[in-house]
Specification:
six-stranded parallel beta sheet
Length: 171
């Protein structure tokens, strides 16, 4: 259990770091058909609403209306219900995707580190990819930092090896 807590803390720290370096994280929650991007606050697309893309960092997305673009959640789940429609792709990193009866996703549905719960009446126009388990999250977020650390270590080792300290002058 403590490994899972440590893994989640590390994962959310990486997500927050990624989110803080992105300029679109602090976009406002628009209700007039524009994109919605949030960090730490859930996104709900109501039954009579239409939005562009919906992106969430460390929170979940619930779609009851229409999304004309993609729906992406980092560290959260995506739920499509009540005849909700997504014209683009639906992707969740570190969360689940639940598609209820009579919902439609025109694009691909992809889950990294979570599960897909799909009602038989849900329609998916593209492919379905489920990479469950924490290993995928490790591979995507932690492995690049390990490779970068090894590269830095190698450069430091090379510099130390080929630069010898000067010998003191003999008197």
């Amino acid at each position: 259990m403590s490994f899972r807590l440590g893994f989640r803390a590390t994962f959310f720290a990486c997500v927050i770091l990624l989110a803080l370096t992105s300029g679109t994280v602090f976009a406002e929650d628009n209700h007039d058909g524009h994109d919605r991007t949030q960090m730490g606050r859930n996104i709900v697309v109501g039954p009579d609403e239409q939005v562009g893309d919906a992106t969430c960092f460390g929170c979940s997305i619930r779609v009851k209306g229409q999304v004309s673009g993609d729906v992406t959640a980092f560290g959260g789940s995506i739920v499509v219900e009540d005849h909700g429609q997504i014209s683009g792709d639906t992707t969740s990193f570190g969360g689940d995707i639940r598609l209820e009866d009579q919902v439609k996703v025109d694009g691909d549905v992809t889950v990294f580190g979570g599960h897909i719960r799909r009602d038989p009446g849900a329609i998916i126009g593209g492919s379905v990819t489920n990479m469950s388990g924490g290993g995928w999250i490790f591979l995507i977020f932690v492995a690049p930092f390990i490779v970068l650390g090894l590269l830095v270590w190698f450069v430091v080792w090379l510099v130390r090896r080929f630069t010898r300290p000067a010998l003191p002058a003999a008197v």
